[in-house]
Structures are given as C-alpha cells and as structure tokens.
Write a structure and sequence with these properties.
The structure holds two protein chains of two kinds. Chain A is about 30% helix and about 35% strand. Chain A is α+β, with helices and mostly antiparallel strands. Chain A has two domains: about 130 residues, D-3-phosphoglycerate dehydrogenase, domain 3 (60s Ribosomal Protein L30, Chain: A); about 70 residues, Alpha-Beta Plaits (2-Layer Sandwich), CATH 3.30.70.260. Chain A has a six-stranded mixed beta sheet. In chain A, a hairpin with a 2-residue loop joins strand 6 and strand 7. In chain A, helix 4 packs parallel to helix 5. Chain B is built from 13 helices and one strand. In chain B, helix 5 runs antiparallel to helix 11. Chain B has one domain. By secondary structure, chain B is mostly helical. Classes of the chains: A alpha+beta, B mainly alpha. Chains A and B meet through helix 1, strand 1, helix 2 and helix 3 of A and helix 2, helix 3, helix 5, strand 1 and helix 7 of B.
Chain lengths: ~230, ~290
C-alpha cells in the first residue's frame, strides 16, 4: 500500500468498503457498459445485503452507475438523481456461494441497448475486485489502467495484442487469459503501467479475432479513488 | 521501496540526516515514481479536504439510522461556556473528533485516515493545534507525511481494518499516526515520533470492533475521541522524553498477534461486545423493519 492508501481516499462516508468501494463498483460497471445506463438490476450478497442499507451501499452503487466518484457529495441523494437521469433500478438480496462478503451483481442496460453483467467485490479501503464479467470469471481491480478484451480463442491473437502494446510503449503489468472452451470465446485482462491511448484501443479493435474491447482508465489517484 | 519497520525509517533519518517526514516523502517518490511536487500537491489536497470536512460539520444532520448526529454541537456549546475538566485544547480535540465521526456517519465527505471509521482522530488533533498556535501550513503537511509513514508500516506489518484486527487496528493505528504527527509538528526527533506512536498503539491494544447493527456509528464515533485524546497524551509523554519500554515495531507485531487471536464476533461482524447487548439487539431489530 502506498501512503495515499493510508491517508485517503477523500470519500463520502460512512464506510470505505460499503460506501466508497460500492461507488467504485458502480462506476466501473458504467465504464464496462460503455454507455449511459438506463436500467439496473442489482443483487447484494453477504455483508452488502446485511448492513448495506445503513451504510448507503445501495445509494453508493447507483451513484457510481450515474458516473459519480467516491467523493461526490451528491451520493446520499443518488436515488433522486437517478430519477432525473432516467435510470430505473431495483435491488434484491441474494446468496452468492463462495463470494467475498461484500459482493454485488449488477445487470445493466444502456441507452443504446448494450448489456453488461458485472460481479464485483469491495475488499476494504475502497479497493475493489471485478470477479465476473458477462458470466466469465476475470480478476481485476481497476487500480491501474486495464484492458478487457473479448476475443476468439485462436492462435496468435494474444501476441498481436501484446505486439501493438509494446510498439506503443505500454508496459504490461499483469496479463490474464480466460476462455469458456477451446476455440470458443476468450477474455484477456491486461493491466498496464501506462495509460492506453484511444487510438491504440481502436487499433486493437481492428485486429482479427477481437470481438470487443473495454478499457478502464481509472486508477487510484492519490486524493480520490474515482475515475480518470 | 516503502518501509517495513519504523526502525528502518529512523535509521534512514540518522544516516541521511533528514527529518522523519522527509524519509516518508522520499520513499513515496521512489514507490510511485513521483516527483516531490506531485507528492506534496497530493498531500496538500488531502489536508485541505480534511479541513473542509471539519468546517462543513452541521449539528442538525442525523444519520439514516438516527443513531448519530448532534453530539459535536453539544460538545462545542459546552466547551464555549468554559470550565471544562479537560481544558480548552483537549475539549476542542474531543469536539472535533465527534464532529468528524458524525459527518462520516451522515454520509458527508471525509478523508479516510487510515479508515473512514477512524477518520476523526487525525484531524481532531491537528486542526485544533493549528488554530490554537497558528502553525504554518508546511508544518501540517509534514505532520501528514509523518502520520502516513507510521500508518504504512502498521499496514504492512499488521493491519488497519477492523474486520482484520478489531478496533485496535483502526482507532489504534489512527491514534499512533496522530501521536507521531503531533510530535512532528512540535519538531520532535524521529525516535520521539516512533515512541509516541508505539505508546499510543500500546494503550489501545485489544480494543474490539463491535459496531451496533453493523453500522459505523455506535461505538465508533466516540472511539475517535479516545483515539485523539490518547494521541495527545502520548505525544506529550514522548516530548517529555518518556519512551515505550517495548520497541515500536514489536508493539505493532503484538497488535497483530492480538488481532489474530481476537474472536470473529469482535471483528466488525456486529455480533459481539456492545453490539451484542439487549439494547443493541433492540436497535438492530428496529432498523431492519425500516
């Protein structure tokens, strides 16, 4: 942990895990959806379900979906903001076996019809972990710039992607590969040391075998664990 | 590289003839590959946010549960009348800790230090001191680095989350950070800083995390007061030349051992301690009906 994980984040209370982390889960879900969400079905598990309401976890998740960051003073009033922004939402409690105690499952729909299903946990101190994306297991914290690439499971795709990143002088911090079955749909999660430029993302999108690219830009900046 | 012991920081201070805060700043620059300006600017932002959070306290606010709100205002009124048992400075410290803890419970913007639940401790000692003595801003930023450095070592050797080590890990750590910060403001030596931190942590060893209904309200808000008051006492002891008989890093390790052996019902589960009293049960039932 660096010293700004110790002092900070600047956040709306009362809990870094149940409030700030929840905002961040909502925010990352919006980023992964890639457009303004209009519908959200949110399931809370474990401690999120048990004490979430008193910690404002529900309002925090909605605030994040609306694009607010953990230090946004409008978080307590996010339900009203959602009405204003045309975001319909519902909450329910579920038991997700073997999930981290603070876990939420968000099914969201965007204004352009895009859909995303994100399962994420709040680990404490405002740090989060995305566990599943559209049903595929992934593990990423969004603490550094992250590319999540859906691609066909075929030879050479990984090397094409990493070659472009190397050419653009983006250093790969971690690289994870997942697939549903051999030759099926695969997911690459690439965490990088440098931000990835828009044009680089668009170059990657044009590679053969790439189905979709999502980019999480937000790192934990010193004074706020919000976006950008 | 960040430090894994307080001893390491003190040694670097001696070797390079630098103050404690500078050793923390240098390690942050190495750690994050950041420039001095960038690091200091980020710390200034936190200090500013902390003061803004203190200034925006509103005694009329109530938390959603109705358990928190108004105490900071009561303390403020009481101390303004004069004649408090703890004297004017300590009374201000108490009021400030209550205010920040309540603001946090009321979903206001605060600075986690090291956690949201313990966010009142550090500002409760720094802000009244700055106001009472008109201390230059630079000194306060140095104190923030000092606090962060102590917290970082505690986080790396033990833990800073109530769920991991009980309240001693949150309020205890915050108190150690605040004690060191106070000694730093007063220009104490690196040894005095780490001994103030050690004494503060030692005094709160064993403190359990037992939030009523699982909320960061009862007893958390008032625990910020004990963290802050304890920090002032330990800073004064250290400045008087009193040391911790047990070396500071060993005190941190002891905190870890105590936290690990603490029963799970006393680690933020809301199942033990004051959370397990008949009154707490009544509150919990009432809240689940809302």
């Amino acid at each position: 942990m660096n010293i700004f994980d110790i002092l900070g984040p600047v956040m709306v209370g009362p809990s870094s895990s149940h409030t700030a982390g929840a905002v961040r889960i909502g925010y990352v879900t919006r980023t992964l959806l890639g457009e303004k969400p209009v519908k959200a079905d949110i399931a809370l598990s474990g401690s999120f379900a048990a004490t979430g309401s008193g910690h404002g976890t529900d309002r925090a998740l909605i605030a994040g979906l609306l694009g607010m960051k953990p230090d946004d003073i409008r978080i307590p009033d996010s339900f009203q903001e959602a009405e204003h922004e045309g975001l319909a939402f519902s909450f329910r409690n579920v038991r997700i076996p073997e999930a981290h105690p603070n876990t939420a499952l968000l099914k969201v729909e965007g204004e352009g019809g895009r859909k995303a299903e994100v399962q994420a946990s709040s680990l404490g101190g405002g740090r989060i972990m995305i566990n599943k994306l559209d049903g595929t297991e992934v593990h990423c914290s969004g603490a550094c710039p992250t590319l999540i690439i859906r691609n066909q499971d075929s030879p050479g795709v990984v090397s094409e992607v990493t070659s472009i990143l190397s050419w653009k002088r983006v250093n790969i911090a971690t690289l994870q590969l997942y697939r549903d079955r051999r030759g099926g749909s695969a997911v690459m999660v690439i965490e990088t040391d440098q931000p990835v430029q828009k044009e680089t993302v668009s170059m990657l999108e044009h590679l053969e075998g790439i189905e979709r690219i999502m980019y999480i830009r937000c790192g934990m900046t010193p004074a706020s664990i919000g976006g950008e | 590289m960040s430090y894994s012991s307080l001893e390491e920081i003190v040694q670097r201070c001696t070797r390079e003839q630098i103050p404690f805060w500078k050793a923390v700043l240098l390690s942050d620059m190495e750690d994050r590959d950041a420039g001095e300006k960038e690091s200091v600017a980020a710390m200034e932002q936190l200090w500013k946010a902390m003061q803004e959070a203190a200034a925006s306290y509103d005694e009329r606010r109530q938390s959603k549960s109705g358990l928190a709100g108004g105490m900071g205002g009561q303390m403020q009124m009481y101390l303004e009348k004069g004649g408090t048992l703890s004297g004017s400075f300590m009374s201000r410290v108490i009021a400030e800790a209550l205010k920040m803890g309540e603001s946090n419970a009321c979903m206001q913007r605060i600075v986690a230090a090291p956690t949201a639940g313990a966010c009142g401790v550090l500002p409760a000692v720094l802000i009244p001191l700055k106001e009472a003595e008109e201390i230059p801003a630079d000194r306060m930023i140095e104190a923030m680095y000092t606090a962060a450095g102590i917290g970082q070592v505690i986080a790396s050797r033990a833990f800073i989350a109530g769920a991991a080590g009980g309240c001693q890990a949150e309020i205890g750590s915050a108190s150690a950070m605040a004690a060191g910060a106070l000694v730093s403001v007063r220009g104490g030596s690196p040894e005095q800083i780490v001994h103030a931190a050690a004494m503060a942590l030692k005094n709160l060893l064993g403190l359990v995390c037992d939030p009523v209904a699982g909320l960061v309200e009862v007893p958390c808000i008032k625990r910020n007061v004990i963290g802050a008051v304890n920090a002032v006492s330990c800073a004064d002891m250290a400045l008087a030349g009193i040391t911790s008989r047990i070396p500071p890093d060993q005190v941190i390790d002891a905190m870890k051992e105590v936290g690990e052996s603490m029963h799970i019902s006393l680690k933020e589960t809301g199942e033990g301690g004051v959370a397990n009293t008949p009154e707490a049960e009544k509150i919990r039932k009432k809240l689940t009906m809302i």
